[in-house]
Amino acid sequence: MAVAHPFRVPKKPCTIDIISDPVSPWCFIAKKNLDLALQEADHLYEFELRWHPFQTNPDIPKEGIDKKKHSEEKHLKLWKCIFRMSNDGIEYKLSGVMGNPLDCHRLIYFAGEQDHDMQHDLVDEILLGYFTEEKDIADREYLVECAGKIGIEGAAEFLEDPNNGLKEVTEELEKYSGTKQISYYVVHDANSHLGLELCCIALLYHYAYTCCITKM
Fold this sequence. Notes:
The chain is α/β, with parallel strands linked by helices.
């Protein structure tokens, strides 16, 4: 039987709800910085991360639009600014297709039903391919490939039926449609420890500066 270290402080539970749009560069940068914050606080907190859908451009057609052209028309300077803000050595690419992320949201929901850690890893895998390898975020083969790398079983069968997860995702899209800024993090402290709230919020603000944070 393992003996607890007399000077080791038990980890405190902390749940973070993440409202995010996978085609948004803000959300990708925020996700990378969130991971830094989680690493920094890993010895203090037992995190549970729950991803929720948001669509900045809900009218994107299934076949997608040209990502670079969209960026030039909308906010190319903003994208370049965001990329310079992230000093992590990743080469971002604006070329490729910006597809409708509905199937991506459905798969992220499916992953969360299995395991929240795998859900978080799946988001990372999908976004890396989309922003650095010009992958199509609406391509089901690509999504299934990402799920396979994480160890999520049944992804192909789940996505094959367009109704799977659609009700749940649609309800959450409606629920979070009023979110003013994304990524949006809601930090829950199950034990209502003020110290936990302040420390966790401070770490998130320090690293994940591209998101809006609320404590509950």
